């Protein structure tokens, strides 16, 4: 499924190579078609080295693409970046704050620098859940609080699109949860949040839509429900005393059956009730029947299997156009 409605970000055929020291070229982004719908949290997901940072840097005009086109709020970038840059807030790396100044004072300075209304400082501190700690010195902040202050700084210009590159890197579980809640809160107030991550579990709970990239290519996109749904409900774990016989009976239905010790993993059955019925007709009774929980992490691992750094790019053209996950078209 293509995302319908207005797009905050759209790229077509985006490509970037870097020159290595030995003169050869490292492909970072390879014909990337990325669509980020307006509103909600969009997870930009992929293993390390998949090209996420390079893509974000290209969108922000920090790196020049070799090929392809990019649009932000329907304006071609980098050509029209000056027209849209005010609508975009990004954290690509940790901004520099004065360690001995309070969070509020740091933000006041920044607000002055960019001509933002100083009254906004307390608003954005509340937005990221730091209102209570606004008077504390920056150097007393935890890593998660520092990261939220960085987000607050980007909110000073009231952007419509927020781009966060791996914002939870190095954070503990509490810090990760706080960033997640902050992103959710921003999206609930109408902002579009584009967040990159190589850890799916962190994004799964907060993202409305996701794009999965590997080796610089889009390999899947859609809503989290679509991506999970494209593979969900197909695997049912069956515990039975006679797995061998049961396996033959189930396979005769045209379902794929794998042995997992004393259990069977059944794929393609319309549901657990039908599995039970088919077996019972043959006088076989299940001890246990559990749908295997599919989460985005397992979808991601399956889609990106063998596509980490140092492996060959996929040759299946399906993988290059992101149609696999769309609308369950896997
Ligand atoms: N300045 C550079 N010079 C040379 N190669 C680079 C440069 N920046 C990135 N690369 C290479 O391009 C590829 C994509 O890197 P990129 O940082 O965009 O990926 P990523 O998905 O953001 O990964 P990570 O999560 O590790 O940051 C990698 O192979 C990386 O080594």
Offer a concise description of the structure.
The C terminus is likely disordered.
List keywords for this structure.
single chain, 330 residues, alpha/beta, Alpha-Beta Plaits, six-stranded mixed β-sheet, four-stranded antiparallel β-sheet, binds adenosine-5'-triphosphate
Walkthrough of the structure:
The radius of gyration is 24 Å and the shape is elongated. It has two domains: 7-229, 3-Layer(aba) Sandwich (Rossmann fold); 235-291, Alpha-Beta Plaits (2-Layer Sandwich). The chain is 30% helix and 28% strand. The termini are close together. By secondary structure, the protein is α/β, with parallel strands linked by helices. Strands 6-7-8-3-9-10 form a six-stranded mixed beta sheet, with helices on both faces. Adenosine-5'-triphosphate (ATP) binds at residues 18, 26, 28, 46, 48-54, 198. Adenosine-5'-triphosphate binds at residues 18, 26, 28, 46, 48-54, 198. InterPro entries: AAA+_ATPase (IPR003593), ABC_transporter-like_ATP-bd (IPR003439), ABC_transporter-like_CS (IPR017871), P-loop_NTPase (IPR027417). This is ATP-binding cassette domain-containing protein. Keywords: ATP-binding, Nucleotide-binding, Transport. GO terms for molecular function: ATP binding.
């Amino acid at each position: 499924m293509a995302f319908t409605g207005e797009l905050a970000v759209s790229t077509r055929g985006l490509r970037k190579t870097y020159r290595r020291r030995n003169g050869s070229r490292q492909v970072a982004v390879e014909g990337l078609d990325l669509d980020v719908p307006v509103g909600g949290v969009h997870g930009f997901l992929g293993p390390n080295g998949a090209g996420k940072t390079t893509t974000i840097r290209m969108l922000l005009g920090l790196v020049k693409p070799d090929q392809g086109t990019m649009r932000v709020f329907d304006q071609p970038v980098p050509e029209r970046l000056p027209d849209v840059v005010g609508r975009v807030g990004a954290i690509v790396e940790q901004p520099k704050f004065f360690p001995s100044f309070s969070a509020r004072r740091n933000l006041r300075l920044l607000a002055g620098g960019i001509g933002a209304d100083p009254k906004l400082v307390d608003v954005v501190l509340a937005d990221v859940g730091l209102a209570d700690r606004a008077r504390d010195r920056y150097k007393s902040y935890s890593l998660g609080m520092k990261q939220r202050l960085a987000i607050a700084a980007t909110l000073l210009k009231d952007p419509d699109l927020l781009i966060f590159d791996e914002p939870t890197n190095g954070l503990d579980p509490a810090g990760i949860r706080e960033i997640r809640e902050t992103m959710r809160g921003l999206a609930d107030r109408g902002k579009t949040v584009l967040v990159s991550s190589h850890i799916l579990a962190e994004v799964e709970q907060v993202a409305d839509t996701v794009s999965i990239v590997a080796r610089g290519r889009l390999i899947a996109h859609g809503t989290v429900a679509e991506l999970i749904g494209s593979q969900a409900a197909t695997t049912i774990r069956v515990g039975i005393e006679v797995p061998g016989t049961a396996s033959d009976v189930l396979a005769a239905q045209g379902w794929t059956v794998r042995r997992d010790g004393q259990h069977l993993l059944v794929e393609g059955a319309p549901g657990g009730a039908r599995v039970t019925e088919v077996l019972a007709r043959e006088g076989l009774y299940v001890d246990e029947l559990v749908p295997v929980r599919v989460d985005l992490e397992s979808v991601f691992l399956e889609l990106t299997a063998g596509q980490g750094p140092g492996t060959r790019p996929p040759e299946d053209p399906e993988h290059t156009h992101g149609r696999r996950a769309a609308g369950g078209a896997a």
